[in-house]
Amino acid sequence: MPDLTTNYLGLQLRNPVVASAGPISQSVTGIRSLADAGVGAVVMYSLFEEQVRRQAEYTAELAMVHEPFAEATAFLPGVHHDPDGITQYLKLLEVAADAVDVPVIASLNGAAPGSWTTMARHLEEAGAAALELNIYFVPGDLTMTGADVERRHLEIVRAVKETVRVPVAVKLSPYFSSVGHFCLALDEVGVDGLVLFNRFLQPDIDVDRLEVRSGVTLSSPNEARLPRTWIAVLRDKVRASLAATSGVADHEDVVKYILAGADVVMSTSALVRHGAAHARGLVDGLDAWLERKDLTLAAARGLLAVPPHTPAAGYERAGYVASLLKAKEVYGSLN
Amino acid sequence: MNERVIIDGNEAAADVAYRLTELCSIYPITPSSTMAELADEWASKGRTNVWGQVPTVIEMQSEGGAAGAMHGALQGGALSTTFTASQGLLLMIPNLFRIAGELTSSVFHVAARSLATQGLSIFGDHQDVMAIRQTGVCLLSSASVQEAHDMAAVAHLATLLTRLPVVHFFDGFRTSHELNTVELLTDDQLRELVPRELVLEHRARALSPANPFIRGTAQNPDTYFQSRETANPFYDRTPETMAAAMRRFAEVAGREYSLVEYHGDPNAERVVVVMGSGVEAVIPVVEHLNREQGATGVLFVRLYRPFPTEAFLDALPQSVRRIAVLDRTKEPGAGGEPLFLDVNSALGEAYSSGRRATMPQVVGGRYGLSSKEFTPAMVKAVFAELERPNPRPRFTVGINDDVTHLSLEHDPSFQLPDPDTVGAVFYGLGSDGTVGANKNTIKILGSSGEMYAQGYFVYDSKKSGSRTVSHLRFGPNPIRAPYLVARADFVGCHHWSILERVDVLEFARPGATLLVNSPHPADELWDRLPGPVQERIAELGIDLYCIDASRVARAAGLGSRTNTILQTCFFAISGVLPREEAFERIKDAITKTYARKSAEVVRKNHLAVEQSLAHLHRVPVPSAATGTRAMLAAVPDDAPEFVRTVTATMLEGRGDLLPVSALPVDGTYPSGTTRYEKRNISDIVAVWDPEACIQCGNCSFVCPHSVLRAKYYPQDKLSLAPDGFLSAPLDAAGLPDTSYTLQVYAEDCTGCGLCVEACPVKPIGQPSRRAINLEPVADRSTERRAVEFFEELPLNNRARVDFGTVRGTQFLQPLFEFSGACSGCGETPYLKLLTQLFGDRASVANATGCSSIYGGNLPTTPWATNAEGRGPAWSNSLFEDNAEFGLGLRLAADLHEDLARTRLGELRTEIGDDALVEALLHAPQRHESELQAQAARLKQLLARLEGMEGAKAADLRSVADHLLRRSVWIVGGDGWAYDIGSAGVDHVLASGRDVNVLVLDTEVYSNTGGQASKSTPLGAVAKFAAGGKLTNKKDMAMQAMAYGSVYVARVAMGADPQQTLKAFREAEAYDGPSLIIAYSHCIAHGYDIRKGLDQQYKAVNSGHWPLMRYNPVLRNNGANPFLLDSPRPRLSLADYQGAELRYQVLHTTDPVEAERLAAHAQQQVDRRWAEYEELATRGPEAFAADTRRGEINA
């Protein structure tokens, strides 16, 4: 039986399948079911700072409902007057970290630069094995330059790294002018892991109700191609661990990411679709595949990465040209 | 050094009680609920008593239940205590006799409160504790917040020493809700005070199979009497033992108390005897009088039962010639009030036995009922009365009794403020944060260690937009002033609208400072003030400041929250603390409150503190008033006389001045007075968009305040319409040239937004708008004129309105309007519907609770009348007996209907219209058209009876109205229906009589502040369920269905208004008992109530609240009587619960438990749904038959 143990962010995982931030990790039961299904680590659902702040303001508004009339000076027990997202998240993290024997990684989605470090410290104190910074700017600000965006990312990572002792990964958007270069820059400031990629959740339009509709759609295996390409490029180019996320439906997708060079492979959509137990299939499938191919995990990892010293652009371009030729074979000339 | 804290009387007492008990059996009742809530919170946090055990805190179904559980626990050997007041204490009386009769150590902490007599009152006096003085318990009184703490300890010790139960009481609200500086007793001190051996002795007296005995026998004439006398030595010893307990307390804690305490001249000739907080108003007067002329004193009775005759006689100077005994209670018909009688008998016996050389003249006075102010001025009047040649033997003080002329006149300008104490008064609106900020201010000042502080908060009777007045005192000396601040150094008026309606300088001293939160710039402020306010400012030489706090708050990103800013200004102007120090302390308090949640909120508040001063302006005050602007009238000139005189006076906050003669003798008040009180409490109101509107009636259906009214009328009426009157062509076939108006009563709208949420229309391209929207309104004169015109339009004929549709009901006149319920209340739309459908022939029995408060709290009440003067007849009996009370209304109606029918038959010839008599007797009256026909016949009958002579005709006239089927409604909340009134509800439903029980189910005791009931859902956090409710919500519908003869419906207006309408109509038409359980969203659930309807939808569609009807008529007709009206759940329970804090708090405090309970709750919902589905597919034979009528069928 192949050895699946994996080093991710300096943490020793029993295998490279990681449950990424999603709804299942919103409860202790959910986190426990992921651990029971055999995942190597659990990334907890993202603590959205803006949401927390809104919640805090909302509860402050609700708190003003207190003292409305002589007989009712409040409506909830005093001990519980002000529940808020942070306390709830920290409490869950604390309990979950105790309840399972795999590392629980906290995911933080901050908004204002100043509060990242405070939040990060709270998460570390609550028992997070590592932090995943989910730096997500809503791209509505037309005045912010690409350089500004990159600088802000680097500042946040640097500040958090200075604040906490646990490892810090950063989950990125693919929409940088030069993703590879930026990953190197992050590596330079000492990030412990790169999680590729964040999905840019885009609103839809309802033509009947004439409304903009927000919503989350689950990912499909096709979406794995972009992160896989970048992982293949970055393999052995950075010191940081590489985590692949998006489009992992079955064990073959896990294998593909490993072959491209991912240290760990994360899944959310498939687990939401099929339940936490689906993780067992991913791990077992990887295990069986390695056995069938008679490969060790270490040997498989990065087997199909862009070879060192190959100019990535050329490799990509070659892949692009090959894709076009293949398409012509299938569909005939596109002209 | 003991810790010094700022707490209220309830916390002071509970803090000791909890630490010296093993069991608290509890039930909510104002003003004592806080004690029980704290006990529950402490237990849920694992706080232990002084012996290291976490006490058990258990909520019971009533105070009777709490006392019963306590009795059992005591017999089981546990140290037990409870907290109660008023009617709650009355419900404990049977057990008090028992517990005392068995010589059982126990303590009852009571926040003493008025009793429900001609009216209910939540406020403080001694009527409740005086009603138990015959039970054999000890009655121990506390006069202040510190005493409530200390006497609690003495009570717990003394009960173990004496074996007698102790009722420890303090004045409701005045002491229970007053914040004051208290030195806390440590656990060590309490352990030292109450030795373990006493606990062991108590335990040794318990029932135990290891040492069996029988207690609680039935006794016979041979020995009952003697047995009753066996306890005498215990009562004889108790005063001395209690005194010993107080001495022991002094050794441990250093504060000295005695059974009876005398202050004043040792050679006094005139003495006042008093109990409770009132003594603190008497002491300064005695000191003042003695400085001037001497010879006065006050005797404070701390132990009232057993009456400490010896201690009383010892304490009273021999020199006393005249005594005024002040009772804070009323015993109509008695020779005098209880303390007066006890004093008289003690003195009489002492004099006649030679124990005392002289017999002083003793007079008795009543004061302070229902927290009526009791001030030094009133005390002075009492002493003045004692100096008169012939003092009145009985008197009252504090009111103007112009009927029996018992009241003493007093001069309110006589005041004895401590010159070193600063007084401040703040006017705010409920929920605006003023009270919270003031509590915070007191804590800031009181925590300095050098300063003492006091806070007392007065609310008006509304649940939305209520006016709050905070009375604060600070100073270097302990503050003992149990009355309002009468000479304030500082007055803060936090809303301009208050300034235009009441005299905010009522409590100001000359030269005081007034801070106004003003939307007007400083240089315009003076001219904007009403003339009378200008006059008062000039007359008192007020130092005037203003700030546009709302603007500063918005600029700092704080929205509408102005409290931090106004608090900062108070500190800056008043100088009670050095400015910089005060600001630092405010900022510290902000940081403490918000730091963990959001650095941003902290930053914004700190910014607000920093920016406040830049916007604070001193306003130059001319030497005299210059303006002519009048104060806003409380009611319009065309209101009925009673409203213009009595009601208006109460609305202006001057009800204390109303003389006895102004008030009804038996608690009977005119209906429908809210219509005269245009409160204008919201800056945003509903605005109708006639073009987008589809006239569906949904908005009007859900409006909690009856401010959306619809009429259709001939188009030509519009020629007289004022500008701004909105209308649209009526959207209905067959009625051409007809217009439709949805009129917003803008002055009554609370801006809750439920109408907006209910509106199904989204104008194209404006997804955030509806056909009705909330918009700011500054000047409501256009709306006022529109309403006047609208009211002149004729009401639509009920016969032409389709009652069966939501759309149709909008044209029915609501006879429940403009109540003071919370903005967006989830209960009131149901009541409004009830009155639209059946109001003109309805009698309503209303259980005590929210609905009896917004339904019946003075000054104005919402149950209204129609143009013919008919409307719902409403009454509230008690909390626990409402179903029985309503059944009584039904029985009376049935009796008188029967009498009417008999007399009608007997007078058939005299009436001379056989067809009319026949129809009156036999025509059906189940449907609206039939009822209208009967109403018309009734009018004919009355016309024929007019002038007819003879006893039978007179009889018939007196009861003829019963020939029109009376609709009896029994209304209340879940605290009543599921808990305290459950047995009565059950019995009434089983009676088979034609009553309609409407349960406004908010799933908590809303009125007393959100305590858990048996309706509270599994996993929800509520007071008394601080760790999450551990059991399932009771399924009342299933219980009621089991009888087979009860019509049952579960409705949720926000999910399916049509089903609600159908259920109300079917229930009322059903000839037998009906039960409607109505989902009522509530601010106690912890979310923005504007989303109330959405939450109702989710409650139904998650299966939490499946809609159903059970109609026995269907079974009788051979069909399945169980109708499942909601679709199979398509949301998870978590989707419904996620939005509400009551569910979310447990996820914060105990996520594992929260998940466990959530999983159970989901399973329970699934299970119940399956059961309901199965019921819906059964044949009629599977259900119980309605055995009252018909053969066994189906």
From TrEMBL, chain A:
Essential cofactor(s): FMN
Keywords assigned by UniProt, alphabetized: Flavoprotein, FMN, Oxidoreductase, Pyrimidine biosynthesis
Q: Which InterPro entries match?
A: Aldolase_TIM, DHO_dehydrogenase, Dihydroorotate_DH_1_2, Dihydroorotate_DH_cat
Q: Which GO terms describe its molecular function?
A: dihydroorotate dehydrogenase activity
Q: Name one GO biological process term.
A: 'de novo' pyrimidine nucleobase biosynthetic process
> Which cellular components does GO assign to this protein?
cytoplasm
Residues of the Dihydroorotate dehydrogenase catalytic domain: 4-288
Which Pfam families does this chain map to?
DHO_dh
State the pathway, as annotated in the record: Pyrimidine metabolism; UMP biosynthesis via de novo pathway
Q: Name the PANTHER family for this protein.
A: DIHYDROOROTATE DEHYDROGENASE (QUINONE), MITOCHONDRIAL-RELATED, SLL0744 PROTEIN
Put simply, this protein is called Dihydroorotate dehydrogenase-like protein
- The organism named in the record is Tessaracoccus rhinocerotis
UniProtKB/TrEMBL annotation, chain B:
Name it: Pyruvate:ferredoxin (Flavodoxin) oxidoreductase
Q: Is Electron transport one of the keywords UniProt gives this record?
A: yes
Q: Which domain of life is it from?
A: Bacteria
One GO MF term on file is: iron ion binding
- What does the entry's cofactor note say about binding and number? Binds 3 [4Fe-4S] clusters per subunit.
Q: Where do the 4Fe-4S ferredoxin-type domain residues begin and end?
A: 684-713, 740-769
Record flagged with keyword Magnesium: no
Q: Which Pfam families match?
A: EKR (PF10371), Fer4_7 (PF12838), PFOR_II (PF17147), POR (PF01558), POR_N (PF01855), TPP_enzyme_C (PF02775)
Name the residues that bind pyruvate.
30, 113
Q: InterPro entries, from UniProt? A: 4Fe4S_Fe-S-bd, 4Fe4S_Fe_S_CS, PFOR_II, Pyruvate:ferred/Flavod_OxRd, Pyrv-flavodox_OxR_EKR_sf, Pyrv-flavodox_OxRtase_EKR, Pyrv/ketoisovalerate_OxRed_cat, Pyrv_Fd/Flavodoxin_OxRdtase_N
What gene does this protein come from? Answer: nifJ
Q: Where is this site: Important for catalytic activity?
A: 30, 63, 113, 1007
Residue numbers binding thiamine diphosphate: 63, 827, 850, 973-976, 1002-1007
**Required cofactor names:** [4Fe-4S] cluster
PANTHER family on file? PYRUVATE-FLAVODOXIN OXIDOREDUCTASE-RELATED (PTHR32154:SF0)
List keywords of the entry alphabetically.
4Fe-4S, Electron transport, Iron, Iron-sulfur, Metal-binding, Oxidoreductase, Pyruvate, Transport
Q: Which residues bind [4Fe-4S] cluster 2?
A: 703, 749, 752, 755
Which residues of the sequence carry a binding annotation for [4Fe-4S] cluster 1? 693, 696, 699, 759
Q: Name one GO biological process term.
A: electron transport chain
Which family does the record claim for this protein?
Belongs to the pyruvate:ferredoxin/flavodoxin oxidoreductase family.
Positions annotated to bind [4Fe-4S] cluster 3: 822, 825, 850, 1082
